[in-house]
């Protein structure tokens, strides 16, 4: 049983304090008038366990810092300072566990995308070290869409993180790296989990203390200046852009008489890895989820990987020496980057007759370990969760349609077509 | 002290008598917990479309596993398609043992009725969700009365269990197209939820 401690932080108060930080940076210091939001608006946005070399970290600090939405990051001038917004902090219990809560509806529009989602960076620290991990928090109304639609079991869930600040590893139990796929679509397996979960761990920076103090300032009705925090530590500096990077969208496995067609509509969510450079080395620091607001389709696909082109941008930290490479938008959907993939074969099949079509809307696509090439490293790419991905097959001859779920193709996250059995 | 002990003994005796009474009443009533029918896996919204179809002809499909939660068995008493058009109607339904559990293919559909497709007449589902047998395969037979395109959006299964009448909803779309062209004969799977 973990103990939620310390800074019981009203989000609005925290936001007001952060606003004070921003104003302080621009030379104007004000006293915020914080109003605590209704308790029912707060929702759990993350939970997890903080460890050091596999052992729970007691009384560790975990702070959640909101980044502006992708459109703001994409349009920032080079060299512009980007204020970041601390929204909650927690102290780990004796078992190392923590929970992070926030009222996402109270977060300013600059930090929320059109679906109300907020890009969050978690900084988890023991006394000497810290580890950074990013994810996108969605309001309940968004995450419950599948439940509302009567489709059970696949609604996005609150991340349940395993963070090891000494080994530099971080992963979400709901998106286990052991189940990620490599380029060919093969599952990584438990033996490659540790390698895939490598995350940036470094010496504890001043940002954790700054965020905690800022949040305390908000809850105590004081300004950030009153408690002596360093506002610059809650900022990032916009750097250069990297356009037109390849994103692995999915693999289509089909035979020539039952070719595949892929549609991605504007509601498709793309969860793309974030690169982080510290001390000269790069690693992945979680993900950011974007919707591209555009639709595209491609047909007549046989055994090929399907790609999008996305834009990334560099951001630098003020406290410390870190550099982020974050996704900020798309360049081209279903780009002309076809690459042959080995035809994966699944076990649970049905036989489809000639002259029929089969259409599915996959709830969640696969996570590709090397899904996006952002220069020095490749980070994950995963699409789905939205209702907009569609895969269809047109059977021009008798064929077998097979899925990777023991409940059959209709329940599978991956399907393939192949020649039908002869009688 | 003796008084306290006597009070405790009396309380225990009363509780025991009450429990026996409740259990007797339940067994006399003969009412068991009704089962809930559901798809064995998490079904993604899925549509099946057949080209070159004729009115009055039988078509069928399968490949969806059903199981029960809570009770002993359910009996499927009816099947219908929501938001149907073009005279689309589900005319028969049946279940059979899970073919994947025996390493065989499930039924993917054909231009014929369920009788010819190897489904018997069983409408009883008694496989619990999460069990080794996974579920039973559902077969649906359908037809259209018009010459044009016909379709049904979302399948409703009516069933009874322990006297209760219930409905299960599956996000499956079925389409019977006129001619070979896909144009104008499609199902938006995103609306099947």
3D architecture notes:
- The complex is a heterodimer of chains A (423) and B (193).
- Chain A is mainly beta and 423 residues long.
- Chain A has two domains: 12-240, no CATH class; 242-419, no CATH class.
- Chain A has six helices and 25 strands.
- In chain A, strands 4, 12, 14, 15, 17, 18, 21 and 22 form an eight-stranded antiparallel sheet that branches. In chain A, strands 1, 2, 6, 9 and 10 form a five-stranded mixed sheet that branches. Chain A has a five-stranded antiparallel sheet with strand order 5-3-7-8-11.
- In chain A, helix 1 (11-25) packs across helix 6 (207-219).
- Residues 1-38, 142-155 and 222-228 of chain A have low confidence and may be disordered.
- Chain B is mainly beta.
- Chain B has two domains: 1-31; 36-191, Immunoglobulin-like.
- A five-stranded mixed sheet of chain B has the order 2-9-8-4-6, with no helix packed on it. Chain B has a four-stranded antiparallel sheet with strand order 1-3-7-5, with no helix packed on it.
- The longest helix of chain B is centred in the first third of the chain and has 28 residues, at 2-29.
- Chain B starts with a helix and ends in a 17-residue tail after the last strand.
- The mean pLDDT of chain B is 88.
- Classes of the chains: A mainly beta (423), B mainly beta (193).
- Strand 20 of chain A pairs antiparallel with strand 2 of chain B, so a sheet runs across the interface.
Label this structure with key terms.
heterodimer; A: about 425 residues; mainly beta; 2 domains; eight-stranded antiparallel β-sheet; five-stranded mixed β-sheet; 6 helices; 25 strands; disordered N terminus; B: about 190 residues; Immunoglobulin-like; four-stranded antiparallel β-sheet; 1 helix; about 15% helix; about 35% strand
